[in-house]
Design a protein that fits this description.
2 domains, three-stranded parallel beta sheet
């Protein structure tokens, strides 16, 4: 009987599954719309009192996005005030919606990768991920391009060439 050989394992390809960079934890949106008078106007005195009375501990170890979905003019300091209060409780805070938060979390995870292990490697970025925003594929490509011999997308048995170093 012939021995079964795993040609993919012997190919020397490094595979990256962006799903593995997904940071576990609750994602929370703070919408300034809910802090405005009649959902339209920020009254400084009332706003500051709401901030003072708010239970910030509920954001302990969570990922937080701050935005305003109302069509209102919100002064910059209002976002800053919320960020200053929640920052000591949460893992990460961003300005934007939950999608922006996810993009930032993946960007952080990609930047934390040990870049030298990819130097002169042939890399396959696994496709068909559930939690991965499109921006993460672009960020990973930009991170890898100066380091690797080549970047492919898909599965090791069926890849699409994305980048090949010259020379």
């Amino acid at each position: 009987m012939d021995e079964i050989i795993n040609k993919v394992a012997e190919s020397g390809l490094m595979q990256i599954d962006l799903e593995e960079l997904y940071q576990k934890g609750d994602r929370v949106l703070i919408d300034l719309k809910n802090w405005l008078y009649e959902g339209l106007i920020l009254k400084e005195k009332d706003f500051r009192e709401q901030v003072k009375q708010h239970d910030w501990k509920q954001y302990q170890n969570k990922f937080v996005a701050i935005t305003c979905t109302a069509d209102a003019i919100v002064p910059t300091w209002a976002y800053m005030l919320l960020a200053a209060q929640v920052e000591s409780f949460c893992k990460k805070i961003v300005f934007g919606d939950l999608q922006k938060l996810e993009q930032e979390l993946f960007r952080d995870a990609i930047q934390a990768l040990a870049s030298e292990k990819f130097r002169n490697q042939r890399v396959v970025i696994k496709g068909c991920s559930n939690h991965v925003p499109l921006s993460a594929y672009i960020d990973l490509t930009n991170f890898l391009r100066p380091l690797v011999k080549s970047i492919m997308y898909g599965e090791p048995c069926s890849t699409v060439p994305v980048y090949k170093a010259k020379g």
